[in-house]
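Sync notes, pocket subgroup
Present: LS, DG
LS reminded everyone that the earlier model was apo-only. Rerun requested with NAP included. Inputs:
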Amino acid sequence: MKNILVIGGSGFLGSATIGELARRARYTDACVSVPTRRPERARHLLVIPAVRLIAADVHDPLVLAGLMRGQDAVISLVGILGSAEGEPYGKDFARAHVELPRKIAAAATQAGVRRVVHVSALQAVADAPSGYLRSKAAGEAVFRAAELDLTIFRPSVIFGQGDSFLTLFAGLAKIAPFFPLASPTARFAPVWVDDVANCVVDSLTAIESIGKSYNLCGPQQYSLRELVQYASAVSGHPRMVVGLPDPIAWLQAWIMEFLPEPPMTRDNLRSMRVDSVCGEGSMLPFGRKAAALEAIAPGYLAP
Ligand SMILES: NC(=O)c1ccc[n+]([C@@H]2O[C@H](COP(=O)([O-])OP(=O)(O)OC[C@H]3O[C@@H](n4cnc5c(N)ncnc54)[C@H](OP(=O)(O)O)[C@@H]3O)[C@@H](O)[C@H]2O)c1
């Protein structure tokens, strides 16, 4: 594949995916186009030779049509964690997770770009407890309804350098004497960002992945309490975790929603009502073996 458009490529998973695309592009003459609303936040991508960073509003169908021209494949990574409340999901979730996929699918079809790889989320189903998961399910449905050569990935929580998960816990541990934690028993199977990025890039040329959805999990399951304890210990600030009763957790999340970038929302609490885990085992698609959290996290959390 020569020309690849990565929508949502400036973020955490996007940067890892582009890094992997660029690494493989050294042996080809591939070009990776990355539209972003905020090029100043994506400056780290400018140093990668195969990457073309473009200031663009991907919600504009005309802009999207221009971006699709000459592409061989599209990787769709846009996602947000928070939205105003609303049924079946908030308006920001609707815009980013459903309307944008609809526009991407239409523009890709129009431009004859058949190959699309979309990243959704584990447990995204139409009757999921949270707007995040319901809207991610609706986004998957939009892509499936289009006539595209589609592959969908559904990761559990993703960890790695620059994550907003373990890094957040480690950062909070520095300043907080103890951890008041909502949903301490919620379970996750964290998967390494490079593993997800490699699966996404592998799939571009793996014909057998067309029409398939893959759940992506790390090799081991943990409760949220265990993850917070681990991140705080590895970062050199071991902290006691105090599980919050539900009403207090809701109040805490509601207050946090007033922050510009809330670390937790009531919708996040709803997402955690379902465990974000796959079956046991560390196998990923394409013969890959998932890396263990303990092998990677100390490398970026340790003081
Ligand atoms: N991180 C995880 O633990 C995790 C777990 C499961 C699934 N996922 C899914 O994986 C994907 C990538 O996640 P991530 O952690 O890399 O997210 P991220 O770091 O927050 O990056 C989000 C990307 O989406 C773009 N974006 C956000 N809101 C947008 C909007 N309204 N319109 C257009 N572009 C928008 C941002 O582009 P700008 O440069 O324009 O801001 C950025 O490139 C998402 O679909 C997410 O739902 C992530």
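DG: Residues 8-14, 36-38, 41-42, 58, 77-80, 95-96, 119, 121, 155, 157-158, 165 surround NAP (CB under 6 Å).
LS: The first helix runs from residue 12 to 25.
Action: DG to write up.
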